[in-house]
Structures are given as C-alpha cells and as structure tokens.
Amino acid sequence: MRRIDIGLQKRVYVPGEEVTGYAHVFLDEPVSQRSATLYLAGKERTEVAYQAGKNRRVAVQEDEFLHQESPMPLPTDEKGKIRPGDYDIPFRFALPQACPMTYKGKHTRILYTIFAKIDVPHRFDVKESTEFDIAPSGAPLFQSQSANAFSDSWKNSQDPGIAFTLERSQFRRGETLRGKCAFRNPRWKDLRRIDIILRCIETATARRHSATSEILKETSQISIGGSFGQFTTPFNIRIPEGGPPSYEASLSSIRYVLSTRLDIAWGSDVVASQAISVFP
What we know:
single chain, mainly beta, six-stranded mixed beta sheet, Immunoglobulin-like, 19 strands
C-alpha cells in the first residue's frame, strides 16, 4: 500500500499567515521516484455558458495565481528508491499579504489547496490533496475624501438631473451608507420618488466569453409625490453583512455599485451611479 494523508493545523487562514501541517506518507515497499514535493496552490476558476449555434456550451478557464513548492525529504536506499515506512513530513507555507478570500459564486470559484505528490516513473503517482479556506483579514484605512456621482443629464441645466455625495468610497460589510442626494426639475415635471439602489455584481470571463450576475440587491425609497423644481435630502442604505467583499482578479471581480434614480411620471428616469469598495 502506498498512501499520503495531509493534516492541517487549521482549516481557515487569513492573508499573511503561515499554513502549517504535515504530510503522513505510508509505504509498504520501496518506491522509485523522480521527485517528492508538497505544493500550495491558489486557483481562480471561471465557467461561462454561451450559445454556439443551436448548442449551449460552457467555457472554462483557470488561473493559478499562487504557487509555492517544498520538497518532501524522504529517506532513500542505495538505488535511490524511497524506503518503506511511516513518515511525517512537516510543512510551512507563508501566504502573501494580499490574496483574495475563498469564494464560490455563480460563475467563479477561488480555491486554495495543499497538494502532495510522489512522482513515480512508469507507474501511478502517489498523491493527495486537501482544500483550506482564506477568510478576509479586515479593511485597510478608509479613504477620507467623499465620493460624488452625477447623472448624464446633470451638465445640461435645462434637463432633469440627479446627483449624490457619499462620506467616503470604502465601507465595511454591515455598515450603513450615509449620503446626500440632490435633484433638479427645471420643467416642473411630476415626480414620484427617489430610489436608492445598492447592487453587488459578479463578473467573470472564460475563453473570451463573459458573464455578469447580480449577487445581491438592496433598495430604499424617498417619496416625493408632486412637482418640485429642486430638492436635497439625506439618505442611508445598509450593506448586507452576508455579501462577499470587493475584489479584482485576472478572470473575475466583485463590485458594489450605488445608484440613485429619480422616478419621473410620464418621462424618462434619470440615474446617478458610483462604484464603492466593500471590505470585511
């Protein structure tokens, strides 16, 4: 029997930590080997469905954004074969300070794996793998400057327009966004309300095919009901605690977008939007 078992000190780590554990190797006979290696890998995998004529297909792409190796020092005999026995090989891998959290979404997966392999020539390799998770470690210092957004019509003073200002552009999950919204209505059209909309959007690309999904959506409303030439009002909306943090990788991203929409009766609505960053 030839077997490798992998034991981790724990299953959840944060960026900058060391992933530690051991590889337990059991061999009941000498084993030829080209190499005996432990690997730590971080992979981003995207799957995007697309239409090819009458057939629906799925494009798949992977990017290994993190790769570390460490040899397994196993004793060998005079012929270079690994001696039979039970061996506990400790390992230690240092995670980078900046790496995305484990994520499993609609089109994207970000996974971390410890992989052990004895490369056996002309026979089946002896190998084993186990996954672990990376949790977010917290937010960087928040930006102090405010964030501003304007509708496309804002530059033309003869058209209805809407704008808003946020205290900042970086927030934590579970925090409440607080800002001010202003609109103008130079033709005194009948107005219904202002919609405040927060969206979390997953974007993925695989083999030149792309897909976008709305992961979550939060809304609130400010009732107006009537004709006003201009109006300024505070607003707030809470970021859900269960949403994923923002990230940007080579094949995928998570973005949060805040929008204010002026609902005009019998007319085209106007919208102002601004991307924000959400951290744990």
